[in-house]
Amino acid sequence: MWCVLLQRRRLHSSLCLMKKLRGKTPAEQRWLTRQLRDPYVKASHDQNFRCRSAFKLLEIDDKFRLLQPGDGVVDCGAAPGAWSQVAVQRVNSAGTDPESPCGTVVGIDLLNIPPLDGAHFLSSHDVTDPATHAKLLELLPNGQARVILSDMAPNASGFREMDHEKLIMMCLSLIDLAEKILQPGGSLVCKYWDGILVQKLQERLSNVFGSVRTLKPNASRKDSSEKYFLARMYRKPVKRR
Q: Where are the domains of the chain?
């Protein structure tokens, strides 16, 4: 009986896939097939996360315990809000656990971010803009964050080296942001694409963080060049007179 039911389910899934692929370009077919077969896409639907990237942060935080109740968190490149969802849960910014301190989550993106209970979203805001920094200082307790998260990336141009350089520059801008809002001992997680400028980024991070390591979460697709730097134990740079 179970074998028959399993065969029917497989047949139904195959028919649904064929219908969805009908009329699509080869590139669209490849993307849709990958999405439909991706266990993290299914899990994100089952657990009400806005996208599969939530599982990258969940894995990182489960291992390193970056996000604690009461923490202030800034999520850069937050749209559509999956990392902010994780942060809200972990730092208790929605106050769902009355026994734990309430944290603060602020998400920033050039795109619109749908509202999320427990998070402040700065849609249509540039992470590098001084006006955005001023708003962060207003929203964060004492103007400081314990953790800066970044899963942001530039729109793909099709030129790998150019896209790599743009993303590295984005990551470097986070070091400037850290100087303004990250409290001593704080942490930074940022996505990068592998390439010739990675060493430069790692060196810059090592100048102001006591520990810098490379991560490749299981939820990060194996055929993707994306990796993450986890930088911990922030120390503010000494300003020269």
A: 2-37, 52-234
Which candidate, 133, 14, 1, 6, places its Cα nearest to that of 74? 133
Q: At what angle do helices 54-64 and 82-91 cross, to 10 degrees?
A: 30
Side-chain half-sphere CA neighbours of 11 within 13 A: 6
Active site residue 216: no
| DSSP per-residue letters across 138-153 | HHSGGG-EEEEEE---
Tens place of pLDDT per residue across the chain (241 aa): 433 333 444 334 444 444 544 565 654 444 444 444 556 577 667 778 888 889 999 999 999 999 999 999 999 999 999 999 999 999 999 999 999 999 999 999 999 999 999 999 999 999 999 999 999 999 999 999 999 999 999 988 888 899 999 999 999 999 999 999 999 999 999 999 999 999 999 999 999 999 999 999 998 878 788 999 999 999 987 665 5
Q: Is 66 exposed, middle or buried (0-12, 13-18, 19+ CB in 10 A)?
A: buried
Rounded CA gap, 150 and 168, in Å?
Answer: 12
Q: How many CB atoms lie within 10 A of CB 104?
A: 22
Q: What is the CATH number of domain 52-234?
A: 3.40.50.150
- Give the separation between CA 233 and CA 39, rounded to whole angstroms: 34
For the whole prediction, is pTM greater than 0.85?
no
- 225 half-sphere exposure, CB direction, 13 A CA radius: 12
Give the active site residue among 24, 56, 63, 191. 191
* C-alpha span between 130 and 72 (Å, rounded): 19
